Amino acid sequence: MNRRVVVTGLGICAPNGVGLANFYESMLNGSSGITFHQELADLGFGCQIAGKPEIREGLKESYFTSLQLRGLNSSGVVYGVMAGTDAWKDAGLEKADKDQPDWDSGIIFGTGILGIDKLRESIHLIDNNNARRLGSNSVMQTMASGISAYLGGILGCGNQVTTNSSACATGTEGVIMGMERIRAGKAERMLVGSCNDSGPYIWGGFDAMRILPFNYNDNPQEASRPMSASASGFVPGSGAGAMVLESLSSALERGAKIYAEVLGGAINSGGQRGVGSMTAPNSLAVQKCILEALMDAGVDKSEVDVINGHLTATSKDADEIRNWSEALGRTGVDFPFINTTKGLVGHCLAASGSVECVASLLQYREGLVFGNRNCQDLHPEILALVDASRIPLTTISHTPGIMAKASFGFGDVNACVIFNDYKEK
To answer: What positions does the domain Ketosynthase family 3 (KS3) occupy (predicted)?
Structure first.
């Protein structure tokens, strides 16, 4: 069985927009969600800026019960539940009846580190002989699968409900895993996505590695500079993105709107061999992942029209462009349009792939390709491979055809998914 899979719902909780409408407006206009954080300055961070969704306290009441809100101290859970619930609603789906789960619907919702603030709070209580004050929801906020468990209970999904975790490749990997389950006839619908906590206990390790920009604390919106000659490191971010994947037959039967079709994808690892390491991708594996994704999708490399890259604003951006060029065998004006979301939201870590997939899919709905912020000074190694016209600085009118979205993560892991404008065959 190899059923067609489409996207019927989107949800987003991003630094530059909570909710689809707000996020779309920010992406359209190139509005950044990166801001200065006094907390980071007080803690002596070199990089004192970050991308963090702004959540009004009252808004949480629309997503959580009063019992769930009691002691809720996990930003990742908040972001993920909001994005996942919104995607379900956007797809026109209802929550399952209280007496029986929806056996045809499942969840694969990933994360990197979940509930670290709750864990810190719990450690403090335990160390001070106050373990009994932990509360009934401390476990579910700190277990890795807490986000899928929360969403599974809220929506009543009775199919596979689980959490994946593959560093920065998590969100894109989850889309592929959900697609494969529906393709195989094991589910009709899968809510897929990913989230990541925010705050100094998440971002501190990266600051210590000196891979975050430290010279933009007074000018945060100019700090995230993917593909730029003046890039000086990635800006840490957080949030969540979510998508409802559905079998085409189910979507057509209930008259659902369709954002795009998921044609295929591939997941692999460079094994930390060759030039690959814990923090650097193996170029051979990256190219192999791209080519295997195209093969799985039944697409020729000459057909790729738009790329949404990983492109983190580090020295590896030029290497990534070279990998795309060599894998596709395309250069100059023949290179696909390429953009990256990180110039506006920073690097949302485990949430990055899903946030960027939502941005990519919105381009189909609106018939455009979002621009790239902060790369007016394109890296010379990139310009040697790609004509500048293929890297739009502002949003352009262009309905995407075949689109490749890739993510590469710590541990030398890769994921690439192929989307297409939905067409009846």
So the answer is: 2-421
Q: Which residues contact 66 (CB under 8 A, 6 or more apart)?
A: none
- Domain-terminating residue out of 207, 223, 253: 253
- Domain holding 319: CATH number? 3.40.47.10
Q: 9 in a domain, yes or no?
A: yes
418: which residues sit within 8 A by CB, 6+ positions away? 262, 263, 264, 265, 293, 294, 296, 297, 299, 402, 403, 404, 405
**Single-letter amino acid code for the residue at 110:** G
Q: Give the tens place of pLDDT for each residue, 248-265.
A: 999 999 999 999 999 999
- Full domain range(s) for residue 272: 264-420
Out of 224, 253, 282, a domain closes at: 253
- Identify the CA nearest to 169 among candidates 406, 424, 422: 406
DSSP letters spanning 66-98: HHHHTT---HHHHHHHHHHHHHHHHTTPPPPPT
Q: 356 near 343, Cβ under 8 Å?
A: no
Half-sphere exposure of 353 (CA within 13 A, CB side): 32
Residue 13 neighbours by CB under 8 Å, 6+ apart: 19, 53, 55, 78, 79, 80, 82, 83, 195, 239, 240, 241
Which H helix or E strand runs over 262? Answer: strand 260-269
- Whole-angstrom distance, CA of residue 26 vs CA of residue 154: 29
- The answer to whether residues 336 and 231 belong to one domain is no
Q: Is the pTM of this model over 0.90?
A: yes
Quote the CA–CA distance of 416 and 421 in Å, as a whole number.
Answer: 17
d(CA 381, CA 323): 12
Tell the residue number behind the tokens 């619930």, with chain if given: 85
C-alpha span between 8 and 246 (Å, rounded): 7
Same-domain check for residues 44 and 181: yes
Give the β-pairing of 189-196 and 239-247.
Answer: antiparallel
Task: Convert the pLDDT of each residue in 360-399 to its tens digit.
Answer: 999 999 999 999 999 999 999 999 999 999 999 999 999 9
Residue-wise pLDDT tens digits, 138-187: 888 899 999 999 999 999 999 999 999 999 999 999 999 999 999 999 99
Q: Which two tokens stand for residue 352?
A: 């990055």
